[in-house]
Amino acid sequence: MEIKVLGPGCPKCKQTEQNVKAAVAETGIDATVEKITDIMEIAGYGVFGTPSVIIDGEVKSVGKIPSKDEIKTWIEK
Amino acid sequence: MAKECCKPGGNIMILACSGGSNVGQLSNQAAIELTQEGFGKMFCLAGIGAHLGGFVQSAKDVPAMVAIDGCEVGCAKAILDHAEIQTKNYLVLTELGIEKNKDFNLKAEDIQKVKAAVRSACE
């Protein structure tokens, strides 16, 4: 599984990355977590704002910090 | 976009039909000017219409939104319905008393009227 967290480095983006990593650790799912900070690359995803979470190419959330439990529901499917 | 991610307060997503008539282009011009004035941020309705994931999810997650249709055909509303996005604030410009035609020389007074209506719809 490939998870990307889009965000230039603000506190919300960092919190989202932490929540994603915690969810991955708790579920034990084999996943890579990549933080995307390049503005042009982020723009390519067509998101209105950040942080955003993308799992295997599917945009799961935009402009908010998803909780660890919410992220777990996405990656356990 | 991303540089505003931690900006306090909400950011209103503005979706204009941008259609091929005076009222369609009025929706577009009002969206541009409201964005330039800092009222909200124009977003790409075509991306939602194309069902591109980033655009659709952005519209679903945004806390504040206004959709502007030029006329009662309601293309913007239909696009949002088709993508299963709840329309939070909505207005149709012909209902403001602006007649639909093919004159693309937009009147400043009409642009101001639309901008005021959008601001009012979001209150």
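Residues 41 and 83 of chain B are 20 Å apart (CA to CA).
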